[in-house]
Amino acid sequence: MPNTLFETPRAAETFLRDSEKGLWISNKYVEAVSGETIESFNPATGEKIAKVSAAGADDVDIAVASAREAFDGHWSRITPDSRGRLLYDLAAAIEEHAEELAELETLDNGKPLSASRRDDLPLAASLFRYYAGWTTKHVGHTIPVSSGNFHCYTRNEPVGVCAGIIPWNYPLVEAAMKLAPALACGNVMIVKPAEETPVSILRLAELIRDTGFPPGVVNVLNGHGETCGAVLARHSGVDKVSFTGSTAVGQKIVEASAGNLKRVSLELGGKSPNIVFGDAPEGAVEGASWAINYNSGQECTAGSRIFVEASKYDDFVASLVSETEKLKVGPGLDPGTDLGPLVSPDQLQRVLGYVELAQREGATLETGGHRLVDEARANGNFIAPAILTDTTNDMKVVQEEIFGPVVAVMPFKSEEELVGKANDTLFGLGAGIWTSDVTRAHRIAAAVKAGTVWVNCYAAADPAAPFGGYKMSGYGRELGSNALDDYTETKCVWINLD
C-alpha cells in the first residue's frame, strides 16, 4: 500500500520473510506428503502473507504417531513440577515475543493491532502461567467407603493424544485455551489451526520447541477441515478432540468421534441476548456497541440480540446509532482503527447477505450494513457495522449466528416476555444484563439459559473463570479448574486391607 503505516511491521518481518512454512511435527517443519499448500492472506489488503503446507490423512497418521511416541515416552515420565516450569517459561517466551506475535495475529486475522497487543497476547500468556500452577494441584481423593475394610482412592490421569481444532477469530488465545490445560494434565496435543489463520500458531510452535518441550508433545497440522480436521476427529489414535467453531461442524465432529468413542468437548456458536433495562447504568450504550462490534462481531459470544425496555427503546436506539457511527473501520495496523476487516471475502459476503435478507423479511436498517471501499480499504473485507430494528424472533437474522457486526434491537415490556424471547434460540453461550437493581440482576441471570452471564459489563474473561455453553452452544468447559476435568481420566483404586 502507498502508506508506509500499513507495511509489514518489522517484528513480524523475520518470520514472514520465509513465507513458505511446513507442517510442524516433532519440533520441526516438514512438507505435507501430498505437497499441497494453503495460502494465507491479509484480510485488510488481500495480499498473500504466507504459504503453508496442507495436511492430509497421511500427515495425520505421522503426527499421531509422533504424539503417541512422546506421550508414551519422555513426556509421561516428566514430573508435574517440571511440566509446570515449562508452561511458566512458555508464558514468559510469549511475553518476550508479544509484539511479533501480535503483529502476526493482526496480519493474518485482520483485528486491530491495539486489540492483539492489549487483549490477545496478555491473555495467551496468562493462560499458560495459570495452568502452570495447576500441574501439582490437580489431585485425586481418598474415599471413606462403607462396604468393607478398603483403602479407596482416585487418580487423575491424562487422556493421551488430544486434538485441538482452532477457529480463526482468536488463533493464539484459542490455541492457548486448549494447549495449557491439556499439557498441564500431562497430555500431548495436535493443533489444527483454521486454514485462514495458521501463521501465529506456527510461530507459537517454534517458541514451544525453544522453551524445551520434547518433540511430539505439540504438533501443528495446517489444513482444510474436510481433509485434516475431519480425519483427526475420526482417527483411532486420537483420544480426545477439543473443538471451537460452528455448531454444524461440531455436530459432524461428534459423529466422527463415535468410532473409538473419543472424548469430545465443544465450544460452539451463540446468539447472545444483551438485555437493557430502563434503569441501566451509564455506559450501557457503549457496552452494547462493544459487545456486538468488538473483533468486528466475529465473536461466539457477540451480543447480537439487544432487548431494551420499551420505555427507553427509542432513546437507546438513537444513542446506539450515534455510538456505532463513531467507530473507525480500517486496516488493523492503523493505530486509529476500532474495527478491522472481516477475515475473508466469503465471510464478508455471508454477513452482507444476512443484512439483505433481514430487510427482505421486514427489518429496518438504521445504519451500516454495506461494504466500505476507498483508497485505504480498496482490497479488504471491510463492512460498516449494522443496526437492525423492527425485527422479530422468527427472523433468520435473530435466530442464526451471523458472526459479523450486525445487531437486532428489540423492545420488551415485562420480565416474563423478556425471558421468553431471550431463551427463544437454539444457543446458550452468553448473555448480558444492564440494570441498577441487583435483585433483578440475580433473578434474570438465573432465568436466562446461558453458560456465562455478564451484569453491567460484557465479555469479561479470566483464565480462572469457566467458559462454555448450554444447548447447541456445546458441552464441556474451558478455562478454570473445570477444563482440567476434560483432559483427565479418573481412575478409582481399591486396596483390600484385610
From TrEMBL:
Name of the protein described by the UniProt record: Aldehyde dehydrogenase family protein
Keyword Cell division: no
Keyword Lipoprotein annotated: no
Family note: Belongs to the aldehyde dehydrogenase family.
Database matches in PROSITE patterns: ALDEHYDE_DEHYDR_GLU
Sequence ranges assigned to domain Aldehyde dehydrogenase in this UniProt record: 30-493
InterPro entries according to UniProt: Ald_DH/histidinol_DH, Ald_DH_C, Ald_DH_CS_GLU, Ald_DH_N, Aldehyde_DH_dom
Pfam families on file: Aldedh
Active-site feature positions: E267
Source organism of the structure: Gordonia asplenii
A Gene Ontology molecular function term of the record: oxidoreductase activity, acting on the aldehyde or oxo group of donors, NAD or NADP as acceptor
Keywords: Oxidoreductase
